[in-house]
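Protocol step 4 of 6: record predicted structures for both targets in the notebook before any analysis. Target 1:
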Amino acid sequence: MAKNYQSKQAIWWYTKEIFLYPMLNRALRLTEIDIILKIAFFIKDLHQELEQLHSKEFPRTSSNKPFTVYRGQCVSEVDMEKIRETKGGLIAFTNFLSTSKQREVSMNFALLSLRKNPSEVGILYVMNINPRKATTAFASIDSVSALKGEDEVLFSMNSIFRIGDITKAKEHERLYEVNLTLTNEDDKGLRKLTNHIRKTNYPTENPWFRLGFLVKKMGHTDKAKEIFQTLLDQTDDDEAKSTIYFELATAYCANGDHKEALALYAKQLLIQRKLFSPDHIFLAPTYHNVGKVYYDLGDYTKALDYYKKALEIRKKSLPPNDPDLGVSYNNIAGIYEKMHDNKSFLEYSKKALEIGKRSLPSNDPDLAKTYGNIGLQHYNTGNYPEAMEYYNKTLEIQEKSLTPYHPDLAMCYNNIAGVHHAMGDNKSALECMEKAHEIRKKSLRPNHPDMGMSYNNIGYVYEQMGNYLKARSNYQTAVDIAKKSLPPNHDFRRIWVMNLERVNNK
């Protein structure tokens, strides 16, 4: 392919190469970063060719009529149940989406998939398209496709539909017709969601910046560091450097390298103080993240100082219900929890929750963090049923909005495990801790402090269950990690050493 490939023939290659389209769509669907980086050039070419075909086929000045396309496929029972539960809501396809104007073509594909996967559920998507107000690029590709006669319409990545009626198909007992309508500019639910996404995702138009940010947000921090370091080496522009230092610092912090993160934030602040006034809104995220580093290091006084610097700037520059203010209130609440100042903790948590409910989508990760903080307060005061209720709200949001191996999901399982343990259910506690541990093993480096926390917590439950051999092994691993990743005076390091010494005396 590499020898003969031309960027203007991306759709032809997509439909011609039997290995290419399943590999590409699997990578996009499952966020397989290594593959996405290797074929990023092809993804860009394919999207651009689709946009060009779309603008020719559906010019804005034309009165294009609505039409229907079909797609047949199989899904698991679990995914089918999620579709049923989301009726009336939105469904997004992160991959390129092949459809046909011929119902029979898609129905045959669904039936063939069912024969190959008898334990799954067949779906015939009936997709209603209004080209006049569509927000996604799509086009008929028969004229440029390597496969003729399928009347294929190809949609670009991230097409979003609203789910309508779901009915059982007569062709097979395990086949359903699911009506979808392509969202458009007038869809208020979509507009609220996309406006929030645009605000929270990387604002630059540079595709490599955006890819690096997306990769980091999904938890692939090592790959993100590679992308941002390459960008840093290629620029002399101070504003670009400032932004890259910020992204690199957050990636290092996520990997537990707090010293390098602080050094990068310091470089960014030097540039920002040269370019902007002391209370410019651009400084707020930097101060906020420096506070997060000190929080992770257990220096809560310095963390509170930097968090409050960020909050003061945001209060001067942002409207009262801006989500960034909610983030500031939320994290300051977390500091007060560590300082055992329950009055201040509740004050700031409630402010964060009020803002979150007014300004964030119901499944936003920042809202999940606020619920988690309130759950923690209930846990600390011994109100375990209330704590479990808020932690379950956190988990419900995070399972919908985060990747399966995101570190925040691990922390939520860890917190739920703590409630189970406090209520005397060590078996359930251990199950949740093991879930948290598996997520961390896939998303964090082996010596990350959160890995130490997992080993310590699992060791503690084994100790309570009388299995001192497994308790000792886990405690020892936690202490070994602490010696490599935490300062000598850190609370966690001190507690983990104390736990190991206690079980050694049993």
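Target 2:
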Amino acid sequence: GCTSVHWFRKDLRLHDNPSLLASLDNCSTFFPIYVLDMESARASKISANRWNFLCECLEALDRQLRVLGSRLFVIRGRAIDVLPRLFHEWSVNRLTFERESEPAGRQRDTVIQMLAENANVQLLQHNAHLLYDTDEVLETNDGKLPMTFDEMAKTAEQLGPPCPPCQTVDKTVFGACITPVGLDHAEKYGVPQLSDFGGKELGRATAKLFWKGGELEAMRRLNLALQKKKFIKPPLSADTLLASDRALSPYMRFGCLSPCYILDRLTTEYQRTMGSKPPETLYTNLLWREFFFATASTNPDHHRMMGNPLALQIPWEQHPEALSLWKQGKTGFPWIDAIMRQLREEGWIHHLARQAVGCFLTRGCLWVSWEEGFKAFDELQLDAEWSLNAGNWLWLSCSSYVHGAVPWYCPVEVGKQVDPTGEYIRTFVPELRRLPTKFLHEPWKAPSSVQREAGCIVGKDYPQPMVNHLERRVVCVQKMQNFTQTLALLNG
């Protein structure tokens, strides 16, 4: 048998993990590792919430590996520095990891491949983070990226249904494999504490009340979602927005759940309850994820305007104060502020909420570049993933992927429709809690006697609206029209 290392990255699970299975095949000594570069982690802007979630996922994985008689080795340092050392120290014959689709990760993996070859280590990688390997998507689409969602759907149809999820790693699969664990394992290879990330105290990880990292929690949530699924979209409500205890996206981000497994369970459950083959619309969200990953896979500048062939070069403006108010949830629009505060506290917001604050920051009100929105979400979201985050912002700001009319999300009216009772706003903007519901979405319209009685004076206890949103809408529409006309002239 051989000595295998499986390098866990965005696949923190034992189910549907083909690279992990390949690692254990005919293996006598097995080292499961996670590589964490603490220096760049400390320097990064990523919130305490996301680091804490990652640590919980790693703790959970370590607990699962213990059941199999193994342990997780968290290796501190940069992969390109630590792997050659481990190859030598552990006499490694085989390295496995999940195939990466993002340009930066691919670049790193090319270097790793060379290091493995130099050390005579066999390297195996399989795709499981996506339903379809991005290279196959390109190949099927005549070597071109799918530029519209419809094109992506056609490509998926040509590729056919993705492979069913592979076997879960359990004691049978693990077999007689041995993981050598020393007495100093915890201090040498243990999962770090949040405090190790520099200035990120546990008290700041407010999201831990709503989220628990790891595969078992992910499975529990998926089972719950499938039990409740009537396969009819519920109307949007405060309850939909307050779904941090039910949502799945952070678990997909860290690979505690595989998309193939979700798809498989969804299809089976649909056929069981509805007695027929599911409609394509059931998979739309998963397909959007595939689409954004595919378009990002060959575009290292996906997250910025410069050098990005997909991004329209719209002349956005710099408004640092406005950006800061938006980020802190102090815009004076309760619906927008509630969303931004939920994002900061819980590390997650509903898709509609992302559209609302994205529209407000960019083409809807403030005319600030989507790149700033990308950075803010990258810092605060538990589920932030480079390809998806950039893809979403390009789309939200009308910088790319746009076909047909794009909705304007009014910072007042949309809130009234989705949160008519004000339950959502009251949860995150407590200073407005005692205001009568009819003024809750527009507190500036409340007579001063009502404001006094509610203990919330607009301009003192809660900010005045930072802009007149209706005037700004007209201005932004005009700016977009001017840009489109200039573009048309340039393109003849």
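Step 5 preliminary note on target 2. The chain has 24 helices and five strands. The chain has three domains: 1-128, 130-164+215-297, 320-491.
Proceed to step 6 after PI sign-off.
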